[in-house]
Amino acid sequence: MSTLPAHAVIAPVLIPLLTGILLVLLRGSATPLRRTISMLGVQALLGASFWLLLQVQSGEVLVYQLGNWPAPFGIVLVADRLAAGMVMLTAVLALFAMMHAIQGSDRRGRQYHALFQFQLLGLNGAFLTGDLFNLFVFFEILLIASYGLLLHGVGAARSRAGLHYVIINLVGSSLFLFAVGTLYGLLGTLNMADLSVRVAALGTADVGLVRAAALLLFLVFALKAALAPLHLWLPGAYSAAGPASAAIFAIMTKVGAYAILRIETLIFGTESGPLEGLIEPWLLVLGLVTIALGTIGVLASRRLAVLISHLVVISAGTILTAFGIGGSAALSAGLYYTFQSTLVAAALFMLTENVARTRGSYADELRAGPMLPAANVLGGLFLVLALAVAGLPPLSGFVGKVLILESSLGTVSAPWVISIVLITSLFTVMALARAGSTLFFKTDTHAGEATLPNAAYLVPVSALALISLLFVIYAQPIYSFAAAATEQILQPEAYIETVLSAKPLPRAGDH
Amino acid sequence: MLSVVGLIVALIFVKFSAPDLALTQLSVEMVTIVLLLLALHFLPWTTPRESSLPRKLRDGALAITGGGLTATLTWAVLTRPYESISHWFLDNSVPGGGGTNVVNVILVDFRGFDTLGEITVLAIAAVGIYMMMRDLHLDAPEADQEGRPWSSDRHPLILATFSRLLLPLALMVAVFILLRGHNLPGGGFIAGLIIAVALVMQYLANGIAWTQPRLSGELHPLIGLGLLTATATGLGSLYFGYPFLTSAHDHFHPPFLGDVELATAMLFDLGVMMVVIGITVVILIRLGSISAGHRRTLLPKNGEPH
Amino acid sequence: MEGLIAAIIGLLTACGIYLVLRARTFPVVMGLTLLSYAVNLFLFVMGRLNIGVPAIIEPDRAQYADPLPQALVLTAIVIGFGMTAFVVVLALRARADLGNDHVDGKDP
């Protein structure tokens, strides 16, 4: 533990924390300085995440005992393939979102960068922690940072959307604490690995109460993951947030999905007896309902940002449907889909901002506006990303959806899953085609000249579109990583064993 | 109404062996009430139009269901036999953490990472609040419903004098509470709130005009510094080859003071205290000066007691 | 005693839920505060009810209250304080931006 590599697990948490503190202290300094610090922080985070990913690649589970106290008494951070993969995804997303933000959208307030870093802190902490209450703390960090980002550059719509978002999530936090309290009151521990052991040894008298607590916990995560009918907060909040903030929000629903997956496989996995498979059927049904409702939202949207927010809802529904199907093939497909859909959604939010700026007062409203100067470039990017998000060949969304559909074959739910996913994909394509043609090719003769976008604006979006292509070309290695991560979480024994048997370092000054 | 409920909750904590919680609950209560009163000042006077009857019935039914479920859950869990990991904390608090107040040792040592997260939440909240309050213009009523102007009288002399005397006293109490937190009820959070309340008292008693030049309202850096102190304390252990936030404690024998036990966890607690002072003062004073800002134009120099 | 505590928590929750469902921001904030009282109390009593045995190590005492839930509640109180402050200011901000104090931003 005394060597540097051992600290790889905490690095993705410490780097944004320190960068954020530095930015709070330097709040009066010039914009270029703050941008540089923030960008350096994100780059360091990317390096650290990659480092962590390399270390867990072999299938090893890394445990980091904070304060040198052993689990289950102290708090531990645990990195397995899934956690490291999500941290890596966050870092990649953060890099592009930051590249986008420093082109001007961070000017709306002095605190943008500090809040951005704290948001990353919350995300990474939530992915890495191995303690249920600590998960609550990191949820709060990422939520309060997101409230701040949401209200960035305050306006009437943002205040309203923000008020809803904050109140809903505060109620969610209360429910989370009720669930954590009940689990502690019955099982006497907070460490997730230890909880798993105790759930497996649960007496029949307590099964009902533990089930109630588990359902409460999943309710909270479903709220974060925007699962129907708890998805209603999302479109308002994301579309009002301003695209630069929404780009980083693209991963927030994934935190909910991640938490569901983690708790479901670790605590209520195959060993948990009567509690096994507690929520899969619910996930499947609600996931499909979410997809359907999201599609209706897409069809009804009158602004591009709202449309994309509904696409985020659809992708959350798709992921949770995959988790609901269950089994290693579906989970792997769901993970692959998670990785690609997060990046594509972020790219679409950024593109929205580019388009809105170019169109001036017409913003991102879906009506004919001024002629766009670089319509081919913007439209081309939109086309690529729209194909990717709708799941048409040859882009990454297609691969993801096919994998999910394939995994559903042979289950009872297959006809439902296949028909709903295909029909909604069709409608999504229609809506996107309509939006694209309105935005890029219909011109209102009364509208003035649109101003040419700065070419540098398009770099992060283009890069993300390129990554979407890479997800197709390298589909095989990425999918095998997802499969390896799935295999690891479906057999949690190694995880539990590593967490509970790790010994703290001997202390020099022990009395 | 709310403060009464808060008080009852605090009394329940005392009754069931949680002095730390009671102290914290009380001090948080105080600050929250001041905050809510300040906020209420800006909200409309008129009695809210009553919601329609069906809606009230629906909400009432939801509320009763929710309350009933929670009560059942509480009762069901409380009547179950129980065995937890807490014996380990009781056994290890003195040898491992160097303090007899187990709750505080858990907060700053065993589960110090949670506490670091918690003050990060506070700091982010302060940043967000600060952001929202820039260019916030609210029309505070200048007179109450019967047309009497607000706070046109001078600040009471006795209160003004006493509050100034009180400040050093409060600081002393705070330091005492901070230091004893490791062994007896107390700790950084409560100490921070006491100092913050004492500072806010200066504003209440002497008025913005008197206090502003003497005490810079810009305690913002304190938040960052406090967070930095706490994090740096944690980082220190990396240098010695231990995981983040590993604590150390030892006995020292400085002249005149006798045996003093110091733990790095106290430094961590100091960071907590700084963040708490920072956020409380920033919020309350900012909110207070919004109203004072335009009242000063109305009643020039009236805030000066001398 | 267990029944009484359960009833108090249930009552606090019920009042909290009712107030959160109101249309104006101030009752909603009050509701959230009540809800957080309920949660804190709930979390606290999960360590079971112990009278007169605070978790401060003394020689010659065998029984102590469970310190862990107390530490968790302290963390929850502080986080709740930050959140309450944020919501209050947000409500003021919304009042300034929207010109009224309705959660939905419009008069019914």
UniProtKB/TrEMBL annotation, chain C:
<keyword id="KW-1133">Transmembrane helix</keyword>
<keyword id="KW-0812">Transmembrane</keyword>
<feature type="transmembrane region" description="Helical">
    <location>
        <begin position="28"/>
        <end position="51"/>
    </location>
</feature>
<dbReference type="InterPro" id="IPR050601">
    <property type="entry name" value="CPA3_antiporter_subunitC"/>
</dbReference>
<comment type="similarity">
    <text>Belongs to the CPA3 antiporters (TC 2.A.63) subunit C family.</text>
</comment>
<dbReference type="InterPro" id="IPR039428">
    <property type="entry name" value="NUOK/Mnh_C1-like"/>
</dbReference>
<protein>
    <submittedName>
        <fullName>Na+/H+ antiporter subunit C</fullName>
    </submittedName>
</protein>
<keyword id="KW-0472">Membrane</keyword>
<feature type="transmembrane region" description="Helical">
    <location>
        <begin position="6"/>
        <end position="21"/>
    </location>
</feature>
<feature type="transmembrane region" description="Helical">
    <location>
        <begin position="71"/>
        <end position="92"/>
    </location>
</feature>
<dbReference type="Pfam" id="PF00420">
    <property type="entry name" value="Oxidored_q2"/>
</dbReference>
<dbReference type="GO" id="GO:0005886">
    <property type="term" value="C:plasma membrane"/>
</dbReference>
<keyword id="KW-1003">Cell membrane</keyword>
